[in-house]
Design brief:
Strand content: under 5%
Distance between the termini: 58 Å
Number of strands: 3
Radius of gyration: 22 Å
Largest sheet: 3 strands, antiparallel
Oligomer: single chain
Number of helices: 8
Order of helices and strands: HHHHEEEHHHH
Shape: elongated
Structural class: mainly alpha
């Protein structure tokens, strides 16, 4: 095994393990808050589904890609290949949609009561679960074609194949690959168009709020930010990270799709760019918005005091 493959395997392993642990900790914190009866924001439901989607991607793409980079190529059956590719594609798409929903709902939540979104601001919490459910249905249906295009590496019926490391796909014409990539990427591109619009709206709302605050309170050197403002900054940072990593991932994916015989290095790099956001997002949420760790600790402390 080459040293470069070993290093890629270690990078995949580190991203996967750290990402799974981070997502598990964040999800367990939210579940604890649910069980303790704390009142959470409507966007917290979206974040929980984002965590689940990230975990699915890391489990069903990070682990197989790690083993492939370390030289294990025939450890999964044909049915396993179809399942792994289908689940990680659904998780990847749901991660994108959840991030998009998060930015849109946060923009609606912080909008002023006299804005044109005032009616949506009242109704938005009631439709959060419905929107998340529809996103899951969309990606479950859109990616149903994925299992038909992949098989295990031991299948000798495909004379020309594209090697994914641990699975293979039929090496169809370049035009067919481009069409498939375009169809599968359509929901992602739609989300990529909505997120900058929602983020721009949030930036404009925060700017107007800051101007109004300075007008009412003067040039206060240490204005205290509200929980809504901190949550908005968290979403903006998460979205900007997502857009940057997705743009790089999309370029790599298109490069991979139009290549007649993509190298294993290109396959690994494409998977690596996809894995960064699911692995980093829980730490972005925890570092930029400390409500969950703080509430979790306060809940544990109050429970301990009651039992004393």
């Amino acid at each position: 095994m080459a040293f470069g493959d070993f290093m890629l395997g270690m990078i995949f392993l580190t991203l996967t393990v750290v990402g799974i642990l981070g997502n598990f900790y964040l999800l367990s914190s939210y579940l604890y808050l649910d069980c303790s009866g704390c009142r959470l924001r409507c966007t917290d439901l979206i974040i929980k589904h984002l965590i689940v989607a990230n975990s699915l991607f890391l489990l069903f793409r990070g682990i197989p890609q790690t083993m492939a980079a370390l030289g294990f190529r025939h450890f999964i059956s044909d049915l396993g290949c179809k399942l792994v590719f289908y689940v990680h594609r659904v998780g990847r798409g749901m991660s994108f949609s959840s991030t998009c929903l998060l930015s849109v709902f946060q923009a609606i939540i912080i909008s002023p009561r006299d804005s044109r979104w005032a009616e949506l601001k009242v109704k938005a919490p009631r439709y959060t679960g419905t929107c998340v459910f529809l996103c899951w249905i969309l990606h479950l249906l859109v990616n149903i074609i994925v299992p038909m295009c992949v098989t295990d590496n031991g299948n000798n019926n495909i004379t020309k194949r594209r090697d994914f490391g641990y699975c293979s796909g039929g090496n169809y014409k370049r035009s067919v690959y481009v069409i498939n990539v375009a169809l599968l990427s359509l929901p992602d591109v739609l989300c990529l168009g909505i997120m900058p619009w929602a983020s721009g709206s949030m930036v404009l709302i925060l700017y107007r709020h800051k101007q109004r605050f300075q007008h009412l309170h003067g040039n206060s050197p240490f204005p205290r930010s509200s929980p809504e403002s901190r949550a908005t900054h968290t979403v903006l940072f998460l979205v900007s990270t997502f857009v940057s990593l997705y743009t790089l991932s999309f370029i790599m994916h298109i490069w991979w799709a139009i290549s007649c015989n993509p190298s294993q290095l290109l396959v690994h790099l494409s998977a690596l760019t996809n894995a960064f956001f699911p692995a980093l997002s829980p730490f972005i949420l925890m570092s930029r918005d400390t409500n969950v760790p703080r509430l979790c600790w306060s809940g544990i402390s109050s429970s301990a005091l009651r039992n004393m």
